[in-house]
Amino acid sequence: MPNQEYWEQHYQEGTTRWDIGKAAPPFVSLLQSPAPSPGLVAVLGCGRGYDAVLFAQFGFEVIGFDFADSAITEATALAKSVDSSVKFLQRDIFDLPAEFVSYFDYVVEHTCFCAIDPGMRERYVQVVKSILKPQGELIGLFFTHNRPGGPPFGATPQEIKEYFQQDFEIRSLEPATNSVSERQGEEHLGQFRVMK
Ligand SMILES: C[S@@+](CC[C@H](N)C(=O)[O-])C[C@H]1O[C@@H](n2cnc3c(N)ncnc32)[C@H](O)[C@@H]1O
């Protein structure tokens, strides 16, 4: 089970192979198409904060969450360097419902679902549901590779739907068309509306 120390150690050692060094291109495209209406966004497992800063640049009010202190420190420095209003908080995402119930218009997810132990996925779905306002949306860029082991733990689009469809209307879940080269053909972009 990858715990806080596991992730923190990777940040401290600079062995962050998942980090693409910029906001995910499929999020950029999504925001440049008729963008979702502005609102309050939680970015779960935000890492160094590129996606959170991107959403803030498009007019969203954003809080990025990660439990690795070094990720939060670096994300906060990034926000400062570009004069962004985004906030970053060091939290375990599984603790968020106690603090942020029905609080966010959007949850943004990028390689967080694949980072948690698969045995925690049902709890993860309940976290997302709990912190969204009624009608709120999950915007997720899921790593849909099929290699064994993890993290990153793979999932098929069908498995992702099965986890979420009880509590979310699956508005779309499509192969991403402009992934970075190392993830070509292995990412799906989803927009799921919570039902509560
Ligand atoms: C694969 S990395 C992705 C980071 C970032 N989204 C990106 O794409 O660069 C997964 C991130 O989730 C964080 N994470 C994993 N489990 C978490 C948890 N239970 N609570 C908060 N953060 C968590 C890790 O610290 C790590 O920064």
For the secondary structure, the number of strands is 7
Strand content: 25-35%
Shape: globular
Structural category: alpha/beta
Low-confidence stretches: none
What ligand molecules are bound, each kind once?
S-adenosylmethionine
Largest sheet: 7 strands, mixed
Number of helices: 7
Q: Return the average pLDDT rounded to an integer.
A: 97
Structure notes:
This protein is 32% helix and 26% strand. It has a 7-stranded mixed β-sheet, sandwiched between helices. The chain has 196 residues and is of the alpha/beta class. It contains 7 helices and 7 strands; from the N terminus they run H-H-E-H-E-H-E-H-E-H-E-H-E-E. It has helices at residues 4-13, 25-32, 50-57, 69-81, 96-99, 121-131, 157-164; strands spanning 40-44, 61-66, 87-90, 104-110, 132-143, 168-175, 187-194. The structure holds S-adenosylmethionine. The site of S-adenosylmethionine has 19 residues, from strand 2.
